[in-house]
Amino acid sequence: MKKIVLFTVLAASLSFASGVKPVDNQLYKKECTSCHFGFQAGLLPARSWSKLMNNLENHFDTDASLDKKDRKLLVDYLVKNASDRAMNYKRSAKITNSIYKNSTPIRITKTPYFIRKHDELRANMIKQKEVGSLSNCIACHTTANKGIYSERAINIPNYGRWE
Ligand code: HEC
Ligand code: HEC
After folding, report:
1. For each of the chain's 163 residues, which pLDDT tens digit applies?
2. Ligand 1 contacts CB of residue 126 (under 6 A)
3. Cα separations in angstroms, 152 against 120, 130, 140, 143
4. What one-character DSSP code corresponds to residue 64?
């Protein structure tokens, strides 16, 4: 009996703690997933989201500006679910801990944890048209929409599974 209880608790905490929390905000899905993959809030710390959301007019050479009300709703959502507020999720904790306290990256792909995890990829794997750039998470991580980035769910177009 004890064993069963222990196993159940362990299984529950494991599934809860892996990956990052999936996007669960309709406005975010509407406004922030039309140009690219919908990056989960738990992929960057709160200060990064604040900085990014303060300059949507110059958003990586595009204009992604919103009206005041929507911008405020989305900053609140992103900050509340940011990586440093979701430390019970394994990936969020790793990203948070990898960033220097005095740095505020606005790209997930510029965080030390991300760079470390992707340094073995060859340029051809990234530059091909099915991928384009490392920001295109869903091109290789087949379960990225669920916030799951485990090695078991990676399939690189034209190169196959990563093992
Ligand atoms: C008009 C198109 C557009 C919209 C709308 C848009 N973005 Fe972007 N976003 C871009 C482009 C272009 C890039 C740069 C992509 C690249 O370098 O491959 C980018 C990059 C990003 C990155 C950095 C990804 C990385 O490389 O780590 C984040 C984070 C991001 N956007 C968040 C948002 C959020 C949050 C919203 C909603 C408020 C949003 N974007 C809406 C065009 C857009
Ligand atoms: C070109 C394909 C590709 C793209 C695009 C890509 N990744 Fe990855 N990612 C990989 C591969 C391959 C690994 C496994 C590296 C290793 O550990 O050997 C990986 C590893 C990871 C890991 C660690 C997994 C683990 O089990 O340790 C995370 C987290 C991750 N990626 C998140 C992202 C996010 C978030 C994005 C988008 C901003 C992204 N990746 C874009 C290919 C990609």
Report:
1. 566 666 555 555 554 568 999 999 999 999 999 999 999 999 999 999 999 999 999 999 999 999 999 999 999 999 999 999 999 999 999 999 999 999 999 999 999 999 999 999 999 999 999 999 999 999 999 999 999 999 999 999 999 998 7
2. no
3. 16, 20, 11, 10
4. -
3-state SS, residue 2: helix
Cβ–ligand 1 contact at 84 (below 6 Å): no
C-alpha 105/C-alpha 146 separation (Å) is: 23
75: CB partners within 8 A, 6+ apart: 49, 50, 53
Residue pointed to by tokens 């007019």: 57
User: How many H helices and E strands in the chain?
Assistant: 8, 2
Nearest atom (ligand 1) to Cα of 136: 18
Q: Is the CB of 107 under 6 A from ligand 1?
A: yes
Domain residue limits, the chain: 19-157
Residue closest via CA to ligand 1's atom 1 equals: 64
Residue 104, burial from CB neighbour count under 10 angstroms (0-12, 13-18, 19+): middle
